Amino acid sequence: MNRFFACAAGFAATFGTLAAVAENSPETTARPAADSVAVGKELFHREWLANDPRSHGGDGLGPVFNESSCVACHNQGGAGGGGAASNNVAILTISPNFPSVKLTDEQRTALRQELSNLRLAVGLSPADETTPETTSLVIHRFGLSEQHGQWKNSLQSQLAGVLQAFPSSQPIRQAQFVQRPAVSSSVGFQQLEFVTPISTNENLLTRFASRLQQFQSASTTARSTTVHGSHILTTSQRNATALFGVGLIDSITDEQIEAAASKKHAEFPQVTGRVSRTKDGKIGRFGWKADTTSLKAFTMAACAVELGLHVPGHAQASIPYDQKYEPAGLDLNAAELNSLTDYLSDLPQPVERTPDNKAAADLIHQGRELFAAVGCTTCHSPSLGDVEGIYSDLLLHDLGPHLSDVGTSYGQSVPDPLPLADANDDPGQPKSIPALASEWKTPALWGCRDSGPYLHDGRADSLEQAIALHDGEAQDSTMQFLMLTPQKRQLLVAFLKTLRAPEK
Q: Of 115, 139, 171, 341, which is the most exposed, with the fewest CB atoms less than 10 Å away?
């Protein structure tokens, strides 16, 4: 059954029972201590300094960092929202571009030499036998020394030198419009009468292609991928994620995510979204790739990578041009890290603000029904576990080549079906398999009105554009959305704009 039709037929059951979004955490979720939250709030807003006297023997901010405080990047809609695209994190990745076949020693040596040449060209140490095949490097926006600025300024010319060294370089994975199959009508479709039926009518297909191209051309793709010999060189970006409501996301159990995933696959077998598992078998729920299992781990990594702070369990960000740099000591201790996590956990849940005016509220209701009718709720589930109003299933979904990070450290291929664990692992448990280049966690849409720009690299300036750029598993929903009349697209987006950041 087409996902659209399934959603259209079942929207009444979904939304007929959907209660108003609660503004408070579930009663089952204990709030952290007020004094710990207060300490965490100060840490979240703290402007860190080099050689900060508030550190614990560490060197404070840096030596490389993307901002000097947490709130600088997570600032929209009050503390906790996403941030501007100007705060995006840039990532440079070198990865192999050859089939997973057995290589001769001679071939392996040649590839290792090629990898060394690429690493040297971008200011990294050469590759040896212990060097991973894929190298990802965060190009931090700031550094304490003049050398960082010089390194960044020369990086462009260094990359140009790579192009000269490998004249066979060519762009790959150019996004293109693919004509979708015709969709026939159904009883559920006709009952709703919201979406224009798609047929083989050439005018309709042309209109769809035109609208898609319009949105794609207006998007700034913050990614560049080229082939160099037997390797891929990729630059990509990551947009800051919204943090409000993360305590509730942290409270969703692995069992609840698995149960929701099983139910989804039974109802919508054409949706191939999968649970993200880390090496220890736990389920990921944080980060664009759902590769972090807990809010504390997510907080710890953000402090270390984005601010360059040395924290328990995670070394501060490394310096590409100074591999010998060693942190002096801890910048945050375990108690402070716990307090920062407590503050984030205590950030209130976003709310759905429906207009008081009945006529306006009726229009919003139509937009909510359209959101379900075109199939968006298949992945953006209104509830998950005990959490209402989240609009996410927290699963990994393939969104197609246009949103792919081909060539990054997430560029592995995943076999189908997923292999079970080895004999040394827990029997019957799926292996930990990194996310595909084109796989992304379904982001929670609560508070989305106050969390733009959108998508993993901030390429979408508007909610309408973000929807239009979905592909892969979401292609049917994208098609149905683009074929709506402009007025009905506005109604759907108007509903999304009722999903507001919490009150300050």
A: 171
Residue 202's pLDDT is what? 54
> Are the beta carbons of 457 and 399 closer than 8 angstroms?
no
**133 occurs within a structural domain:** no
Rounded Cα gap, residues 79 and 128, in angstroms: 44
The range of the structural domain enclosing residue 213 comes to 1-30+179-220+253-286+350-400+438-504
Written as six digits, the tokens of 145 are: 């020394």
- pTM for this predicted structure: 0.80
Torsion of the alpha carbons at 179, 184, 185 and 188, rounded to the nearest 10: -80
Q: Is 240 exposed, middle or buried (0-12, 13-18, 19+ CB in 10 A)?
A: buried
Is residue 378 in a domain?
yes
Q: Which residues of the chain have pLDDT under 70?
A: 1-29, 98-101, 156-209, 211, 216-223, 406-432, 504
- DSSP annotation of 497 reads T
- Residue 343, CA distances (Å) to 189, 251, 348 in order: 46, 15, 10
72/86 Cα distance (integer angstroms):
11
**Residue 139's closest CA among 128, 147, 130, 148?**
148
The pLDDT tens digits of the residues spanning 293-333 come to: 999 999 999 999 999 999 998 888 888 888 788 888 999 99
Looking at the structure of the chain, the number of domains it has is 1
β-strands 499-500, 170-171: how paired? unpaired
Residue 114 lies in a domain: no
Distance CA 478, CA 375 (A): 9
Which pLDDT does position 367 carry in this prediction? 97
Residue 400 CB coordination number (10 Å):
18
pLDDT tens readout for residues 329-360: 999 999 999 999 999 999 999 989 999 999 99
H or E segment to which residue 391 belongs: none
Which residue type is seen at 467?
A: I
Measured distance CA(121)–CA(127) in Å, rounded: 12
Please state, in angstroms and rounded to a whole number, the distance separating the CA atoms of residues 213 and 177: 8
Give Cα 53 distance to the centre of its chain.
35
Give the CATH number of the domain where residue 443 resides.
Answer: 1.10.760
Q: Please indicate, yes or no, if residue 442 is contained in any of the structural domains.
A: yes
Dist CA 92 CA 412 (whole Å): 16
